[in-house]
Every structure is written in C-alpha cells, then in structure tokens.
Amino acid sequence: MKLLAQEQININVKAADVFSFISDLENFGRWFPGVVDIQSEQRNADNIVGKTYIETVDIPVTGKQKIHITVKELEEHFIATEGRFKPLMPRMEMRVEPIDDSRCHMSWSMFSRNESAVFSWVVLPIFRWVMSKRAKVAVGQLKSMLEAHH
C-alpha cells in the first residue's frame, strides 16, 4: 500500500466520544471536505466488520462519484475501511488514543492499494496532493466540531 495522506491532532474530548463519532461513518461528510454524502447500506446494523456504505465524493476533474466502502477492521479505538474505486483503491484508517480522561490523540490515514507502476507515477501524485489538503482541513474541522459540543 502507498500512503496518500496522514494527519494527526489532539482533541479535548474523551477518546470514547471521539471514536463513537468518527466510527459512525455517516458523520464523515460533516467534517471531511469533498465528501458530499455517505449512507449505510444496512440501516439497522451497528458498525461491524463487513458493514457497507455508499459514499458520494467530489473528485477533481471527474466530479461526483459514488464509492462502495466496506469496514475491514474494527477494534477498540481503531477502524479501517476499503473502497472499490479504481484506480485509487482507497484504504482509510482512523485511530484514537486516550491522553487522559478528557483528551485524546486522533490519527487519520489514507492509502492506495493500487500497486501499478503507471498509477504510482502518473495518478498517485494528484490524489496525494488533493487528499493531503483535504486531510489537513478535516482534522481541524473535526477538532472544532467536537470540542464545541462537549
């Protein structure tokens, strides 16, 4: 896998509350730029490995695209998803670690599972640039949003 973007931030909210919010992926568009909408395909299911979502994302040049997202890993304070979107083949990872009873450290990473050399040289730099810019804004928006409500 190739790293596209990674951001980290300390949030003055309990780790459990932050993880509860970010692991409900229907909240993702509230804090991550470029995500127009994200809806669970299983309306009544809790977040479990295998749960699927349809994410509508604003992609530079091509416009809005629907991406099928699947929860691949889910542990205490860690979630990983993978999307079926060629050529990117994205994998997102989010981790929340407690600092103390009222603060935590949150990390967000996006990878590409596409191992093609042509993709790496031609397309990957564009996705890396876009995702890095969006991620930097996203973690700041997440921090502001969560701290304002706690």
- Cα Rg: 15 Å
CATH class: Alpha Beta
- Total count of domains: 1
What structural category do the secondary elements indicate?
alpha+beta
Order of helices and strands: EHHEEEEEEH
Classified in CATH, the superfamily is START domain
Could you tell me the CATH topology label.
Alpha-D-Glucose-1,6-Bisphosphate, Chain A, domain 4
Strand order of the largest sheet: 1-7-6-5-4-3-2
Number of helices: 3
The general outline is globular
**Residue windows where pLDDT falls under 50 for at least 5 positions:** none
Amount of helix: 25-40%
- Alpha carbon gap, first and last residue: 36 Å
Q: What is the mean pLDDT? A: 92
Q: Percent of residues in beta strands?
A: 35-45%
The CATH architecture category equals 2-Layer Sandwich
Number of strands: 7
| Major sheet attributes | 7 strands, antiparallel
